[in-house]
Design goal:
The complex is a heterodimer of chains A (181) and B (501). In chain A, the strands form two sheets. Chain A has a three-stranded antiparallel β-sheet with strand order 3-5-4. Chain A has 181 residues and is mainly α. Helix content of chain A is 46%, strand content 10%. With 501 residues, chain B is mainly alpha-helical. Chain B is built from 19 helices and five strands. In chain B, strand 2 and strand 3 form a beta hairpin. Classes of the chains: A mainly alpha (181), B mainly alpha (501).
């Protein structure tokens, strides 16, 4: 396949964002539109450059990292897993709450419950400022948007954390007659 | 009992017409000037019996809503209140009479909202609450709440909840009737289905006996009972579907109010206790299936035995009922499933999400966060800041290079370069000089011939030329100055006129 790489729109910006680990979803506007319109061209170019462009089933794009991976990913994943478990005990559908709700940092249980504090201490997250840094990272990677200093809202790419949860279950745990919640 | 005696006395007094015949204002007639008064409600006269007298009932204990301070009560006010208290006691204690259907329906048409509210309440109402409810919901006739409460009692609509004398609730007959009217579906439990199946099984045996004995009237009685039993199963299946639909709708609307576990439990209840019994009726090989198959078989045998007459016609109807019942139960089961399965699937998906999250967190607790491999699972590339240009001008230049379209190399058009020699042998220089004679300026020629040669090497060649006997070297004029590599040379000009090998 011959691709005119010069014709790929916004190549520099798209590459720069993806290379930084950002996930591009429709909210990114022109960058996302450029990717959608020239997905094959971008994918071919990035493959030649040694990057693995992925399109998630939910429609957003990202680079699958290889080699050295970001430690921030581990902290963000832990943060989100705690949010999911916390939502399970609250009224409402977890997914709907997760994706639509505006979370305030001071309402979250991360530093309030001992068990959660224990997890977070292992990744050197111990203060509200550390939590704020995780939210900043979520914002930077395109998983969330900061509403203001203390509040944030998850975005579509946060479904990647859901994938972690689904993948964690073995086939045995997903047998059809398993009716327990 | 004194109260009962008092009730009778009151009743008698009322019957004797000694009580006031005019209606009363809703509350505190002696303070009407100070209170905002709603429209004066008329007290309809009910012809005949005790109901006629309840028209004047009013609670003496009623307290005006929002009244903050006690109001002075006049002598006339006290009399009025006493009379109202007596009437109220009558209303409260009089035994309900068998309701006249016309009175009941007339009342129900005026107070439909009130009856629905009573139906919707599982906890019942205290008397004060009920009076408040009546006051809020009102009625088409504008009757006073106390009067309406009296009618509710008299028509057998409400009664005291057992063990809670202060709480009133709908009587069961009225509740059942309203269930029918309001399509409030009762769910069929496995026990109910089992009871029906037992009944049908017994009637099947009775059918066999009646046919064997050729007992026509017994056969007709049995068929009649079978018709009723089959219709009950059909109706209950329909009601169960309606109930499942209703609860599924409620569950959907409660999604934001209940945590996952509560929703899951409710859905499981619905499945286990209501949907699965329906499935039992239609599942091939189940007890219900065998019972109904047996009935179909015996009805067929009976139809062959009874070829004509009334029995044959009734038999045909019963067989048709059986077919319809089975068909409808299948339909209701499928529709119930279609209500429940999407909810079940959504909950299952949600459950997978939460179980997965909890599993990862448990692993982090047991083995440490690093062992979970969250970093590898998420696989986010590292953001390398060292690759970013700090110098904007340099970045712009390099970015500009990205669009540079490299073409073929261009030819460089310059004169043939002087021979660049790192070392020149004297013989070679002599040969070149001989080829070039006559040379008017030997040093000048050497400097031009070997432009890149260090000055010292040029001088070495110059000396070699002067020492060569075969060359005719002679002074050609005054001293001259030459420059090379910041070195200035001054010497007399020597001329080479000829050469002899």
């Amino acid at each position: 396949m011959t691709t005119d790489f010069q014709a790929l729109p916004r190549l520099g910006e798209v590459f720069e964002q993806l290379r930084r680990g950002r996930h591009l979803d429709p909210e990114e506007g022109p960058l996302y539109q450029a990717l959608v319109a020239h997905e094959d061209g971008f994918a071919a170019l990035f493959t030649r450059l040694g990057f693995d462009l992925r399109r998630h089933a939910r429609g957003f794009y990202y680079f699958e990292g290889t080699g050295t991976l970001s430690d921030t990913g581990e902290r963000m994943a832990l943060f989100v897993l705690i949010v999911i478990e916390w939502l399970a005990d609250r009224p409402g559908r977890v997914e709907e709450q997760f994706m639509s709700r505006v979370f305030a940092l001071d309402e979250l249980p991360h530093l309030q419950q001992e068990r959660y504090r224990g997890y977070l201490q292992q990744v050197r997250v111990e203060t509200p400022e550390d939590l704020g840094n995780i939210v900043n990272a979520l914002d930077r990677y395109g998983f969330a948007r900061k509403v203001d200093d203390g509040r944030f809202q998850f975005r579509t790419p946060a479904y990647r954390f859901f994938d972690l949860c689904y993948d964690a279950l073995t086939d045995e745990e997903e047998r059809p007659d398993d009716l327990t919640p | 009992m004194p109260r009962k005696s008092s009730s009778r006395n009151v009743t008698q007094s009322v019957k004797a017409g000694r009580l006031v015949k005019k209606g009363y204002p809703r509350r505190h007639p002696h303070t009407t000037a100070a209170m905002p008064v709603k429209k004066q409600r008329k007290v309809p006269m009910v012809k005949g019996g005790a109901a006629e007298n309840q028209a004047r009932c009013g609670s003496p204990y009623e307290v005006p809503h929002g009244s903050a301070a006690p109001t002075p009560v006049s002598l006339e006010g006290r009399r009025v209140r006493r009379r109202r208290r007596l009437r109220y006691l009558w209303c409260a204690l009089a035994d309900p009479m068998p309701a006249d259907p016309r009175s009941f329906f007339a009342f129900a048409s005026r107070h439909a909202a009130l009856l629905e509210a009573l139906f919707a309440s599982d906890a019942g109402y205290t008397e004060a609450e009920l009076l408040g409810l009546i006051d809020r919901l009102g009625g088409d006739d504008g009757a006073a709440p106390e009067y309406v409460l009296g009618q509710l009692r008299q028509l057998g609509c409400v009664e005291e909840r057992p063990g809670e004398t202060a709480v009133l609730e709908l009587t069961q007959p009225v509740r059942g009737f309203l269930e029918f009217l309001l399509q409030s579906h009762r769910l069929t439990t496995p026990e109910v289905v089992r009871a029906y199946l037992d009944e049908i099984e017994g009637l099947t045996q009775a059918l066999v006996d009646a046919v064997r004995r050729q007992h026509a009237s017994a056969l007709l009685r049995t068929l009649s009972k079978l018709d009723v039993a089959l219709e009950r199963v059909r109706v209950y299946a329909r009601e169960t579907y309606g109930g499942v639909r209703e609860r599924a709708l409620r569950l959907r609307s409660d999604l934001d109010a209940l945590p996952l576990e509560a929703r899951w439990e409710e859905l499981m209840d619905l499945m286990r206790y209501y949907v699965q019994p329906l499935e039992e009726v239609i599942k091939p090989g189940s007890v219900a299936d065998r019972v109904l198959d047996q009935l179909a078989l015996q009805l067929g045998a009976a139809a062959r035995a009874v070829e004509a007459g009334e029995e044959a016609a009734v038999l045909a109807i019963t067989r048709a009922r059986l077919v319809r019942m089975r068909r409808d139960v299948v339909r209701d089961f499928q529709e119930s499933l279609s209500e429940v399965l999407p909810l079940l699937e959504a909950l299952r998906q949600e459950s997978r999400l939460i179980r997965g999250a909890s599993r990862l967190l448990r692993q982090a607790e047991r083995e440490g966060v690093r062992a979970v491999g969250l970093r590898e699972r998420l696989a986010l590339p590292v953001h390398r800041t060292e690759g970013v240009f700090a110098d904007a001008a340099l970045e712009a230049y390099v970015r500009g290079l990205r669009t540079y379209d490299a073409a073929g190399a261009e030819a460089v058009l310059v004169e043939a370069p002087a021979v660049a020699v790192a070392h020149v042998a004297p013989g070679e220089a002599l040969a070149a000089l001989r080829a070039a004679v006559p040379v008017p300026d030997v040093l000048g020629w050497l400097l031009q011939r070997y432009p890149d040669l260090p000055v010292r090497d040029v001088l070495r060649l110059y000396a070699h030329v002067l020492a060569t006997p075969t060359l005719a070297v002679a002074p050609a004029g005054a001293r001259q100055t030459w420059s090379r590599h910041e070195v200035t040379l001054t010497a007399p000009v020597l001329h080479v006129s000829s050469s002899s090998a």
